User: Fold this.
Amino acid sequence: MVLQAAPSADIEVRITSLLTRMTLDEKIGQMSQSTSMTTPLSGQIKEEIRRGRWGSFLNAGSPQDRAEAQRIALKESRLGIPLLFGRDVIHGYRTIFPIPLGQSASWDPDLIEQAARIAAHEAFADGIRWTFAPMVDITRDPRWGRVAEGLGEDPYLASRLAVSMIHGFQSDSLSSTGAIAASAKHYVGYGAAEAGREYNSTWVPEGQLREVYLPPFQAASDAGVATFMPGFNALNGVPATGNLFTLQKILRGEWNFKGMVVSDYTAIPEMIQHGYAANTADAARKALLAGVDMEMVSTTYFDHLKTLVEKGLVDRRAIDAAVRNILRLKFQLGLFDQSPPVPVEPPAAEALEIAKRLATESIVLLKNDTHILPLSKSNEKIAVIGPLADSPVDQMGTWTMDGRASDVQTPLAALREKLGDARVLYSPGLKNSRDLARDGFEDALQKARMADVVLLFLGEEQILSGEAHSRAFLDLPGAQEALVNEIAKLGRPLVTVVLAGRPLTFHETAAKSKAILYGWHPGTMGGPAIADLLFGDAVPSGKLTITFPRTVGQVPIYYAQLPTGRPASSSDLGIPLGNPVNPVGYVSKYVDVDFTPEFPFGYGLSYSDFKYSNLRVSAPKLRMGGLLTLAADITNTGAVAADEIVQLYVHQDVASVSRPVRQLKGARRVHLKPGETVNVQFLVTTKDLAFYNQRMQLLTEPGTFHFWIAPDSARGIEGKFIVE
Ligand code: NOJ
Assistant:
């Protein structure tokens, strides 16, 4: 379904009429976005709005300020052009859903769409009509802080989930009540920041760009996303903000994107620091020529475009084209005609219910020795220990400026509610995740001694992931490992719940824990979701959408790697972490850690077990242009009803360009009662098997294909077919 209505003739006529009446100053005003707004609106801002100085505001003002500003724009500016209020509504507005990386671990496009719809409704009610989401940057580097904001390492899955988010935000029509415009960001390659360091350069060969980094953006464009935002990064030496290849050739040319492009925050003048623009005037010209319609926060357009036009260095038509894209969006959103929305109410019951479901589906069970989980409610005393057990702000995660700590239900609160206060013995042990002081240990140990089972809530605070929060270490920060060591000595069974914005490495803690739930930053309803999972009122079903390394030294590590000429094998496993052994064999591995990840992409356990059998392929051979059905039976062989995320991977043996060892081509979440079998089918066309050859042509080459219908990227039942 394409959501953004094709430019309608009527709207284009209205835009043309406006363009003929607008002064150059008013046009450049439309192309300018500000983040400054006072409460109440100052006389100066009111005057600027009347003059048409701004086309948009971002992350600015209270709902009342925005309503008043809009009234002034519509009623008191010369041409009555409305303002467009944008805001970073990334994973919820008032109701906070799991961070996007967590949401992706649900592999549930429908639920993700519902969550985005709720976020849009809540934001809409506060006068917001544009979000800077979804972030569809593929990354294979958990050091990068913005891994939290993305949808994992896989382009196929990220594309599917991004489209769901866009549908959720934009609804069937941008003009409907509760719809807000979405933005695909950060175009493109931003997630490939060298060494995982924020804002660092990116080097991506064109084949990899087209196969890994561009597909989610193309999917967003095809789905009718209203806007695009280029990244802060330089891609192959050219800043994304002035990149003619990505913005003009690919986005506008190959994809025929008709929406609006907004720069990232001060990214236009940052092209000077990149060494790509000589000064702010040069930067403004380069950004405009690349097709950036609106400038976020910095004022190079306002300061220079008029003079550049007068000097003949910028064509007026380039300005008109940009303003047309901006006005079109305002018309499509119905901003010229709509009355101001009503302020948001506290989270509605339905919003909290969806937030809980999405948190429940996104949490991944990584380990469950001796089936210690689910815990029995007959345990007399439970110790709840750790800095993340009762930390509402941290639980919300990055980008939650409208979420309220007072709405958040923490694991501690939810466990007390489930078990009664008297049975829950709480001690944070540390003040926060980075705390190095050990003065809280004794209290924690005392509580642990009194308990039948110890629940550890470890991980990262909110501020350790997100924009500009890259890490060079992926360990549990602070004295968390030391706390675990002390508690482990007591011999009580340990169950660890990790709340974090990225994959962490916690090998030692994992070894000491009988079970591990990976909860990401799960949002407003994370506590009840975790409590339900711990006690079997819900069954874990999330699966990783990013590979978990054993140590940061393995990064980048991802499942869809190319084969090496000297692959390691299972006989090369068992190398102790961090302790070099005498190397044997000249194969692709490390001498001080196994070459495999700690947990592979797609991995996640359940309280039930699933058997994969009866693999079928509808025909052994497939003609070019044809279609195949690949199928398997999935049986719930365990004792509880549960969801399983069934995955389809494909590998082409020989091609003109070496193909990844596996590539995800399908996924389905199925619900199975104990003993129930379901036949899961995937349709594959030869188009789905296409890749970019050395001449950058997207083609399917004949050959032998292996496929796996699998519970994760490292296992599965295997078959093959031939494309002729
Ligand atoms: C900078 C971030 O990179 C971008 O994702 C965000 O939308 C803008 N700031 C606006 O806050």
In short: The longest helix spans residues 109-125. Confidence is low (pLDDT under 50) at residues 1-5.
